Amino acid sequence: MLSNSSKKEGIDFKHDHWIYMVVGSAFLGAVSGLYDRYLMAPVNEGGAGLDKMIVQSWYTFYQCIMMGVVLIVLWWPTHKKTTPFHWNWFIVGVSLFPSAADFVYFYSLSIPDAMISIVSMVRRSSVVVSFLFGAAFFHEKNLKAKTLDLILVLLGMIFLYIGSE
C-alpha cells in the first residue's frame, strides 16, 4: 500500500535508493535498541550494567560531535549564500524535545520486563508527528492514501502490543 501511495508522487519502491535507506534505518534502530538494552542490563544478567543517564549522556555527546562535523563541513562553508543563520525559538524545541524523548526511551529500556519490539515500535511512532507536520505546514498531497497507510502502521503497533500481553 505504501508503494501505491508513493507512485502517485513519482517514487518507485524498487528503484529508489532512499527506500532502502528507510529499511536500513528501521533495521539499525532495532539493533540500536538491543545494544542499548545490553548496555543497561545488570552485569549479573550478562549486560554492561550502565545507568540509563550515562547511556543518554554518551549518546548526546556523540550526537553533538556528529552534528558539529556536519555543521562545519557542510553548512559553514556556504551558509552566507545558501542559508544564513536566523535565531528562532524552534531551535530550543529541536534541542529539548529529542532529549526528553530519548530520556523516556532509555528509561523504558531500563525496565526489565519491557519488550524491545514494543519500545522500538513506539519510538518509530514519531511518524505521526511527521505526518501531521507535513499535512499542516507543507500541504502534502495524497493525504487520504497516506492517512490509510498511517492508520495501518498504528494498527500494527496496537496488535503488537496486544500480542505481547
TrEMBL record:
User: From what superkingdom does this record's organism come?
Assistant: Bacteria
Any single GO CC term annotated in Swiss-Prot or TrEMBL for this entry: membrane
Start and end residues of each EamA domain? 57-161
One Pfam family per UniProt: EamA
Write out the transmembrane intervals.
18-35, 55-75, 87-108, 147-164
Q: Which keywords are on file for this protein?
A: Membrane, Transmembrane, Transmembrane helix
Q: Does the keyword Membrane apply?
A: yes
In its keyword annotation, does this UniProt entry include Transmembrane?
A: yes
Spell out the SUPFAM superfamilies in the cross-references. Multidrug resistance efflux transporter EmrE
Query: Can you name this protein?
Result: EamA domain-containing protein
What does UniProt list as this organism's lineage? Bacteria, Pseudomonadati, Bacteroidota, Bacteroidia, Bacteroidales
